[in-house]
Design a protein that fits this description.
Blueprint lengths: L3 E5 L2 E5 L11 E8 L2 E7 L14 E6 L7 E4 L2 H21 L7 E6 L6 E6 L5 E3 L6 E3 L14
């Protein structure tokens, strides 16, 4: 049977099921990335971990956009806060990559995940690029020189 928890100074403490009214506020953080995308991190109160795993008591979930329904679970409040920041950044990159902000440009780049050389005419912000094969999103930082990668074939 799964264990129930409450928070005492942001630290999970086991409680009997009869004391669930003590759970209180469960929101760790909520961030609106855009009008259509929100990242939410909550205290779950019930251990969602697998046997032999540390209790998974916090969850970050993305609602809307390219990462809709993506989620990650954590054991501690600190991990949940760090995870929330990570998913906000990911959602911002994914949201930016899916919006047309610039005229078409021709680019060539190598995907860092699947290592395919990509040639494309982009109609998105050239500072945010998504690999069409594996979906990895990249954000190019301003004032950083990027050397193009060319396919030898």
């Amino acid at each position: 049977m799964s264990q129930w928890y409450t928070l005492k100074n942001n630290v999970p403490v086991p409680v009997p099921i009869a004391r669930l009214g003590e759970i209180g506020e469960r929101t760790v953080a909520k961030t609106a990335v855009s009008p259509d995308v929100e990242v939410s991190t909550m205290f779950l109160a019930l251990d969602h971990g697998m046997p032999g795993q540390s209790p998974q008591l916090f969850e970050t979930m993305v609602f809307g956009g390219a990462l809709d329904q993506a989620q990650e679970r954590y054991a501690t409040w600190d991990e949940a806060e760090a995870g929330h920041r990570k998913w906000v950044e990911r959602a911002m990159v994914a949201d930016t990559a899916s919006v047309s902000l610039a005229p078409q440009i021709k680019v060539e780049y190598e995907c860092g995940k699947c290592h395919r050389v990509l040639r494309a005419e982009l109609t998105i912000d050239p500072l945010a690029v998504t690999c069409p094969y594996c979906g990895t999103a990249y954000r190019i930082l301003p004032n950083v020189k990027i050397e193009p990668v060319f396919d030898e074939s």
